[in-house]
Amino acid sequence: MCLIPKKVFFVKGKGFHKSKLGSFEQALREAGIERFNLIKVSSILPPNCIEISQEDGLNQLRPGQIIYIVLSKISSNELNRLICASIGVAKPANEGLYGYLSEHHCFNLKPDKVGEFAENLAAEMLATTLNIPFNPEANYDEKKEVFRINGKIIETKNISESTTVKKEGEWATVIAAAVFIL
C-alpha cells in the first residue's frame, strides 16, 4: 500500500475554553477538521500534489476518517499573551519534484513575522534540495529574489493564525494545518 497524497488544502483556526483540550477542540472546529481522526506527519509536499480549496477538501472527507496533516499548534492560558501558528509552503517549479511544508509557532510575535519565518524555512529547505545557492544570513526578501531568478521554486506562501489570551483562567489555542487527501 502506497500512501502518497494526491491533494492538499490548508486550514487555520483559534479556540477558547477553560481547558487546554477544549480550546484545541474549538480551534479544530473553526478550522473545520474536528470531525476527523488526525495523524500528524512531517513536512514533505509530495510530487504532483494538487492544492485545492478548503471547501472542496472538506467535501471529499467523511466524519471519522483518518487524515494526515502537517500541524502547527500553540496554546496558552497567560492573560494577554499573543500566540501564533503558521505553516510555510514552498513548491518547486517542476511538479514532479517534492516541495516542503514547515510548521512554526511562537509567543509574542505578530502573525506576518511568524508566517514569514515559516515560509522562509520551507523555501530554504527546498532550495537546499534543489542546490540553489543563497546566503542563509540574507533577509527573506533577498532570498526570495534569488529563488525567483533561479526559476526552480514556483511558489512560497504561508497560512497563519493568531490570537491573544482574552480572559483570566481561559485557554487559547491557535492552529494552522496542511490537510492531505490520498
* Coarse shape: flat
Query: Between the first and last Cα atoms, what is the distance in angstroms?
Result: 12 Å
Which radius of gyration do the C-alpha atoms yield? 17 Å
Oligomer: single chain
How much helical structure, as a percent, in the residues? 25-40%
Strand percentage = 35-45%
Per CATH, the architecture is 3-Layer(bba) Sandwich
Count of the separate structural domains: 1
- The CATH superfamily turns out to be Pyruvoyl-Dependent Histidine Decarboxylase, subunit B
Q: What is the N-to-C order of secondary-structure elements (H for helix, E for strand)?
A: EHEEEHEEEHHEE
Write down how many β-strands occur, each being a DSSP E stretch of 2 or more residues. Answer: 9
Overall pLDDT level? 92
CATH topology: Pyruvoyl-Dependent Histidine Decarboxylase, Chain B
Major β-sheet profile: 5 strands, mixed
Sheet with the most strands: spatial strand order: 2-5-9-1-4
What is the class in the CATH system? Alpha Beta
Question: Structural class of the secondary elements?
Answer: alpha+beta
Number of helical regions: 4
Helix and strand layout, with pairings?
Elements: E1 7-17, H1 20-31, E2 37-40, E3 44-45, E4 50-51, H2 54-59, E5 66-76, E6 82-92, E7 99-107, H3 111-129, H4 140-150, E8 153-164, E9 171-181
